[in-house]
Amino acid sequence: MTAAISSELLKLRTTRSFYWLIGSVLALVLVVTIPLCAFADFGGDGPLEALLWIFGQFVQALALLLGALLVTSEFRHGTITPSLLVVPSRTRLMGAKLISAIVIGAALGFVSGGLIVAIVSGFGSARDFDTSGDKLQMIVGATLASGLYGALGVGVGALVRNQVGAIVGSMLYLFVGETIITVVLSLIDSLDDIMPRYSLGAVSNALSLVNPGDEDVLGQVAGGLLLALYAGIFVVAGFVMMQRRDVTA
Amino acid sequence: MPHAIEVAGLTKRFGSVLAVDDLSFTADEGRVVGFLGPNGAGKTTTLRMLLGLVNPTSGEATVNGQPFHALSDPVRTVGAVLDGGMFHPGRKGRNHLRVLARAAGVGDARVDELLELVALSDAKSRRAGGYSLGMRQRLGLAAALLGDPKVLVLDEPANGLDPQGIRWLRDFLRRLASEGRAILVSSHVLAEVAQTVDDVVVINQGRSIKQAPLNEILADARGKGGGVKVAGPDVRKLGDLLYAQGVPVSGTPQEIHVQGKTGEEIGRLIAEHQIVISELTPVESSLEDIYFELTGATGGPS
Fold first, then answer.
1. Residue B286, pLDDT above cutoff 80
2. What digits encode the pLDDT tens for the residues A169-204?
3. Contact by Cβ (8 Å): B25, B14
4. Between B225 and B189, whose confidence is greater?
5. Residue B17 touches chain A, beta carbons under 8 Å
6. Which is it for strands B32-36 and B199-204: parallel, antiparallel or unpaired?
7. Minimum distance, in Å, between the CA of residue B110 and any CA atom of chain A
């Protein structure tokens, strides 16, 4: 299993898109966070929660994207065939992808969350704006949330297989679909607290301890468990599909 | 001792299409087995079932007596190139091999050794997307050889190769077979593998239609007459005469192909009608003819 995981990580590291994706998101974090903390005027609340929230969304989406790429890229380029010839057990191959995606996702969440906390804290103490918040818990939450999004991506990729479909579909759902469903459901009194509490975005916000709208959200642990459950459902469904599928390309 | 490759009663149905129909054959070490059939005959599906990529509807395919999934060390037991090997176009050739080597527990030194073996050392730092078809096939071969397996399964390895590449491949495969490996190589062009294979399995529409050593098939080919070729400025006249007698004739105004008449019979006709010819040659039935006869192909696209 270690060999299969090491191979999966090498697969990521030997394509340029991996570095582009990671590099651009981390660059974006720095390019926005540093000038903002250096020059902007904050009222009562410091920027920590808002920054963690907005970049959390980006980084989690990126983790999902990388997880999905780990699977769909193999089908797109047909490398699934040589991959299965060296690792014939599909469960083992997919398991290696799952663990790799969780590791990469978690690392991204940790680095980006850590950077934001460090930058905000640094400028906050120099410029004397509010930097309160349970920083350690926030970093832990960001790390776990991104890791779970990586797992979710592997599940989605295994289910959909088509690279464009998996990526466009999941991004549309994350950035458009949930908002639309939230708005529609908010019009119905008996259903209006479903999305703010249980949607993918809501549970990952709960897990990362960011709640910019001050909604009535789940606790960190409950949010984390629910996110893990969502990811688990996709992963199990994806693995079952992979197991039964004929690999013809 | 179990056969290196054994396919027994293998059947695959995709919906209403019976892709492989009760197919059985074996391949042993030290032999190159040509797995032949027109496009769509079920060759690739058979090989994919052998390698655990496609689940058979019924029947069984084994390597050294075990299904592919059950092999304790698959990479060191069997190597395969399917569809010319497949690459991420943005990954460098050497890295493609390193990725597979790592999963297989094979070191990078072996990767470089194989790049040397398939003559890709100079191109190893280029992205595989820029490789020519021949280079891709060779990179695929290198991947198949990572674990130095005794059994090789190659799907259309000559596809897209230029004559030089085909010769290289032929020599390469002969060398691998002489090292005592079992090689199963599929092709839809008999001529590509005729100089490489020891045994031939011909399938059409998913069914086995001929299994024999190549020598036997060649002996059959010599036994059968393939007609007579006549060329010259007036062969059209000859063709008309023969045609009038009900003899099957085909060809061009300069060169005709006559079936069912001996050279002597045609010669007499030529003398009788004082026709000028430049060439009169009996034609042996070629391997291709035998192949077409076996697969029932008419020469049109299948």
1. no
2. 999 999 999 999 999 998 998 888 888 889 999 999
3. no
4. B189
5. no
6. parallel
7. 15
The closest of B44, B39, B138, B47 to B87, measured between CA atoms, is B138
Give CA torsion, residues B171, B177, B179, B181, to 10 deg.
140
Candidates B10, B51, B53, partner chain A, best to mutate (most A CBs within 10 A): B53
* Residue the block writes with tokens 């209403």: B16
Q: Is the pLDDT of residue B221 over 70?
A: no
Residue B70 and residue B25 in contact, taking contact as beta carbons nearer than 8 Å: no
Is pLDDT above 90 for A56? yes
Q: Which residues of A137-166 are buried (b: 16+ CB within 10 A; e: fewer)?
A: ebbbbbbbbbbbbbbbbbbbbbbbbebeeb
pLDDT at A44 over 80: no
- Yes or no: say if A212 and A50 are a contact pair by the CB < 8 Å rule: yes
Tell me the angle at which helices A90-127 and A220-244 cross, rounded to the nearest 10 degrees: 150
Residue from the list B99, B104, B143 with its beta carbon closest to the beta carbon of A14: B99
Q: Which residue of A has its CA nearest to B73?
A: A86
Residues in chain B: 302
Mutation for testing the A interface, residue in B86, B145, B151, B153 having most A CBs under 10 Å: B86
Whether residue B226 is predicted with pLDDT greater than 70 in this model: the reply is no
Cβ B100–A16 below 8 Å, yes or no?
A: no
CB B199 within 8 A of CB B28: no
Between residues B226 and A9, which one has the greater pLDDT?
A: A9
List, in order, residues 6 or more apart from B191 with CB less than 8 Å away.
B287, B288
Could A77 and B89 be called an inter-chain contact, meaning their C-beta atoms sit closer than 8 Å? yes
Beta bridge partners of B203: B208
| CA distance to A58, A66, A67, A126, B126, per residue, from A21 (Å) | 11, 9, 12, 32, 22
CA B79 to chain centre: 17
Q: In chain B, count of helices (H) and strands (E)? A: 11, 13
- pTM comes to 0.86
Q: Which of B99, B108, B111, B148 to mutate to test the interface with A (most CBs of A within 10 A)?
A: B99
Cβ–Cβ < 8 Å for A226, A202: no
* Whole-number Å distance between alpha carbons of A49 and A116: 10
pLDDT tens for A203-244 read 999 999 987 776 778 899 999 999 999 999 999 999 999 998
How many Cα neighbours within 13 Å face the side chain of B274?
0
Interval B16-38: pLDDT, tens? 999 999 999 999 999 999 999 88
